[in-house]
Specification:
FomD barrel-like fold; 7-stranded mixed β-barrel; 3 helices; alpha+beta; about 180 residues; about 40% strand; Ntdp-like
Length: about 180
């Protein structure tokens, strides 16, 4: 299995259950890469939607992907605090300098005070019917929403108090290395 290396720039590809591309983030710097975890960072990176529209991310973000959990977490560093956008998704795979996952519509938005809201439940139900999500996938996804909420409440993983500081410092270190090169 390929593993992205620290300091490497990769793309992130989000797909839908039917195999169609959903969204591509052009450049994300790898801060940690193992068989199970990829932590990356991006800032003002180009994002391309499935219909060809493009936009730039607004703020620096630390991204957390796991090969065993059915969610990924984007930590957006804003002036008034860290906001988290959590995608309920398949575990990631990595190949040919691209990290890939299936986006299953359900999202959890977490605010700096650790309150949260579940988003896109209607979209999930529509796509579940349209793309025939198997019952087993439905159960896995709902279990992982509960697991994710547990992480939020326990301040586990990216929600831990020191996570952002550690990985932001690592990102700044790598940015400085690139400037010197």
């Amino acid at each position: 299995m390929l593993i992205p290396t620290e300091g490497e720039t990769i793309q992130i590809h989000s797909y839908k259950h039917n195999g169609k591309i959903h969204r591509v983030w052009q450049e994300t710097m790898v801060l940690k890469g193992t068989r199970n975890i990829v932590i990356g960072a991006n800032e003002r990176t180009l994002v391309t939607e499935s219909d060809g529209r493009t936009w730039l991310t607004r703020e620096p973000s630390i991204c957390y992907f796991h090969a065993e959990h059915w969610f990924n977490i984007i930590c957006m560093l804003r002036e008034d605090g860290v906001y988290y956008y959590c995608n309920i998704s398949s575990p990631f795979i990595y190949d040919s300098q691209s990290l890939k996952y299936i986006d299953y519509d359900l999202d959890v938005k977490v605010f700096p005070d650790m309150t949260y809201t579940i988003l896109d439940e209607d979209e999930f139900e529509d796509h579940k019917k349209e793309m025939n999500y198997p019952d087993e996938i439905d159960m896995i996804l709902h279990r992982n929403v509960e697991k994710l909420i547990g992480w939020i409440k326990q301040r586990k993983g990216p929600f831990a108090t020191d996570f952002i500081e550690v990985w932001t410092n690592r990102y700044l270190f790598h940015k400085q290395l690139r400037i010197r090169e």
